[in-house]
């Protein structure tokens, strides 16, 4: 276990866990996924932009607006947030998925960009994060529970909180600014060490599968059997031997068994 966290360059203190209190029945914000005309991606881009401005001026004219985005490349995984007053950009652990990154960006924005005693409008182009939050259950990803907890705390300082999905790459200036900011991250930007347990599991499942394939390709069975058909994979995953073969051993990294 110690080798595992050494490989991840993190500690148990930075693994996202369930909050002390679960909020599955206490979503104290509005979530809008398809309530506005600008959320219809079938519209031309120029029309989406105009419809967005119209909706904000009519429905959210007295709201403090924040926008968030995340970026994942071969070099960095990053989160960014922007408001009319300030902005932020951080590197996060590269194992985190883009889903986790988008959720963490909203969490960070609630902490850093909110203005006390004002209505709060949070914009994100991550439909999946808002959908997960709207359908929050005990089985939801832990980062979504963390986001629900952040919203619950912020409700003590803001009158109303609205989370609105905004279509990406639709010339909505809030989206464009947050997207550009997330992509400007460099090694010199601050690093947030939080990492989702689900992403750790997914990462090592991928590595385990690669290890199994590598072992098979270098075994005596490869020449006589050939490649295992993809159609057999679901069946193999239910076999005890498959689970045994794909058990990840962090020591393999240090012995050079896995490239």
From TrEMBL:
InterPro entries: RNaseH-like_sf, RNaseH_domain, RNaseH_sf. It comes from the Eukaryota. Residues 60-187 form the RNase H type-1 domain. GO terms for molecular function: nucleic acid binding; RNA-DNA hybrid ribonuclease activity. This is RNase H type-1 domain-containing protein. It comes from Araneus ventricosus (Orbweaver spider). Coiled coil: none annotated.
């Amino acid at each position: 276990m110690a080798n595992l966290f050494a490989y991840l360059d993190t500690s148990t203190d930075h693994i996202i866990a369930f909050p002390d209190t679960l909020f599955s029945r206490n979503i104290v914000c509005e979530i809008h996924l398809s309530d506005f005309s600008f959320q219809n991606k079938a519209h031309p881009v120029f029309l989406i932009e105009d419809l967005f401005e119209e909706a904000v001026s009519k429905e959210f004219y007295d709201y403090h607006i924040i926008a968030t985005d995340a970026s994942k490349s071969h070099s960095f995984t990053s989160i960014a947030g922007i408001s009319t007053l300030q902005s932020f950009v951080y590197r996060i652990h590269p194992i985190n998925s883009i889903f986790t990154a988008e959720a963490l960006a909203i969490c960070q924005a609630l902490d850093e960009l909110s203005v006390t005693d004002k209505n709060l409008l949070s914009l994100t182009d991550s439909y999946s994060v808002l959908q997960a939050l709207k359908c929050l259950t005990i089985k939801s990803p832990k980062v979504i529970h963390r986001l629900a907890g952040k919203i619950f705390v912020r409700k003590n300082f803001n009158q109303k909180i609205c989370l609105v999905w905004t279509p990406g790459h639709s010339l909505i200036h809030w989206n464009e600014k947050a997207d550009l900011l997330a992509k400007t991250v460099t090694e010199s930007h601050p690093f947030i060490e939080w990492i989702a347990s689900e992403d750790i599991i997914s990462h090592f499942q991928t590595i385990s599968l690669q290890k199994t394939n590598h072992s098979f390709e270098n075994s005596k069975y490869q020449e006589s059997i050939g490649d295992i058909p993809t159609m057999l994979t679901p069946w193999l995953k239910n076999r005890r031997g498959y689970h045994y073969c794909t058990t990840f051993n962090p020591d393999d990294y240090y012995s050079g068994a896995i490239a």
